[in-house]
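Please, structure for the following, as tokens.
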Amino acid sequence: MEKSFYDIVKSLSWQEVTDSIYSKTENDVVRALSKKYLDIEDFKALVSPKAEKYLEQMAFFSRNITQKRFGKVMQFYIPMYLSNECSNHCIYCGFNHNNQIGRITLSDEQILEEIKAIKAMGYDNVLLLTGENHKNAGVSYIENAIKLCRPYFSAINLEVFPMKTEEYERLIQAGANSVYVYQETYNESRYKYYHPKGMKSNYLYRLECPERLAKAGIHRVGMGALIGLEEWRTEMLFLAMHLQFMRKNYWKTKYSISFPRMRPAAGGFQADYCVNEKQFAQIIWAFRLFDNDVEITMSTRERPEMRNHFVSLGITSMSA
């Protein structure tokens, strides 16, 4: 039987992984910073509390690696929300089925109006987003939206609900270049608490989504975790392991990672594990040192001053 990333997750204890990160010493950090190729133990050191006094050195290395691999180039993409209808009950999300907000799913005419507005601003890289509503904005709807966008954009990316491999094949055939799917949290024991109802409550189906995408032949898979739900150092360690697993087993696919931080939304959910900007920087630089070639995306969740500061320090893609 083919091994999946879930086999690795099952073999690990969340608490033991957390303890191993917090047990890292200053010598472990120095050793990691001296190496050209980092392993998971090195990554643990770089996201550990002991690495905080080495952030300036990490930033220097991150900047040099990024410019060497990507040059002084920044990809800009612009989001287009196709639908905010959703059947999920994620307790932290403004799209939660129970939230009393205005719901809309764009018609073909409205999509074309959005395309005209985006093209007038000069953008050529679009990200199509939906909630999870299979009746009004299912696979066929998204496939049609891609076909409407295809004559106008050179890159069409998706951030939509998880699908089967054959459904992804349809969307790739229609013109999708990349699909972004965030695990939200890798902590399986707590996952159901955050996702009590709806298709998204299936931890395994979401976890194996990047594998289905790679099997379908997608050009790029976007991965990430929602920072704030659980202990962020542990969350990032699982994300790093997931990225490493995908690189090893699906090496033909390109990868992008993102670290969306919890922000206020409809419903008023308050995160338990807030991450400050200094810690956010530590995450970015640890990933750049761990994987020199991965694309790292920053969204408009972050304030403009911070986004501007990180343009040269590890980020390669940014929401417009």
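The first strand starts at residue 75 and ends at 81. The chain has a mean pLDDT of 91.
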